[in-house]
């Protein structure tokens, strides 16, 4: 009997399997109820009493040995499965790089959300425009220099197919198809024929806001601007309006905010004045309302427009405009925490 056990042990020790199915067959052959090891138990009855102890122990050991060996075969196979083609699927996964929002998108979104809290909704228009929407409807004189090839990109030399130079074109598109009240913000990309440098680019981004209703006054504009400046920068930000000129607004103004870099004390960023210019604005010129089919005797409104790059520079002090369009991931990664 002990010999039989020994032979069986040697047999089991030499077992090999190349897949899970074979391992299972071996388990059935040796370890199931009718398997070779269990069958030894049947012979156990005939073992003389004085040998029972030794034989019993040997059978138990064999059973443990067979279980361990067959389980061992299965583990080796499992291990091999995870290493197919040199892939170690048991390794912990590396971090997924989710990327970041572009700083201009972050700021654009922030501007939109501030205005949306005042009831403004987003309106968009085409980047390839016609003369009417970019210039004529907005009260630009026939000989206004902005119409010049020097400033505007015309497509195929056609004076009526051009890249918009400002998002004010969206104002006239919306006014043409909507009667007041109108309360919109128009974010978008604009193009100008400028030599590219740290301070100028041939494309950049603007957000325009337009509010038209009965009895809209300059006071409404001013309060909107103050709210915007304090939400965008900090709650102590001061604003200052300087008279200016735009064809589509009358009166017109440019808005400065107290320099948020030095707090108004004076630094190189604000050229030691304590103020930085951030946008243009004014009361919509009655000529513009009429050109777009809105009765200027009944309605009035204000408009304002700002450069997204400018606001982003103030918030994040990006020195060179070109950084915004180069998409260097080292630069973009710096805005991860701004999300
Ligand atoms: N369109 C002007 C520009 O591109 C910005 C601007 C100024 C927009 C005054 C306005 C405004 O709506 O009222 O420089």
Describe the protein in words:
The two termini are 76 Å apart. 39% of the residues lie in helices and 20% in strands. The chain is α+β, with helices and mostly antiparallel strands and 339 residues long. Helix 1 (2-13) packs parallel to helix 4, helix 2 (20-31) packs antiparallel against helix 4 and helix 3 (36-44) runs antiparallel to helix 4 (49-81). It has 2 domains: 2-84; 103-338, BirA Bifunctional Protein, domain 2 (2-Layer Sandwich). The model has no long low-confidence stretch (mean pLDDT 91). The structure holds 3,4-dihydroxyphenylalanine. 3,4-dihydroxyphenylalanine is lined by residues 166, 168, 208, 246, 249, 280-282, 303-305.
Average residue pLDDT = 91
What sort of overall outline do the alpha carbons produce when their principal axes are compared? rod-shaped
- CATH class division of the largest domain: Alpha Beta
Largest sheet, spatial ordering of strands? 1-5-6-10-9-8-7
Rounded to the nearest angstrom, the radius of gyration is 39 Å
Largest sheet: 7 strands, mixed
Order of helices and strands: HHHHHEEHEEHEEHEEEHEHHH
Assign the CATH superfamily of the largest domain.
Bira Bifunctional Protein, Domain 2
Count the beta strands: 10
Instruction: Work out the helix count.
Output: 12
* Beta-strand content bin: 15-25%
**Count of spatially separate domains:** 2
Task: State the CATH architecture of the largest domain.
Answer: 2-Layer Sandwich
> What's the end-to-end separation, in Å?
76 Å
User: At the third CATH level, what is the topology name of the largest domain?
Assistant: BirA Bifunctional Protein, domain 2
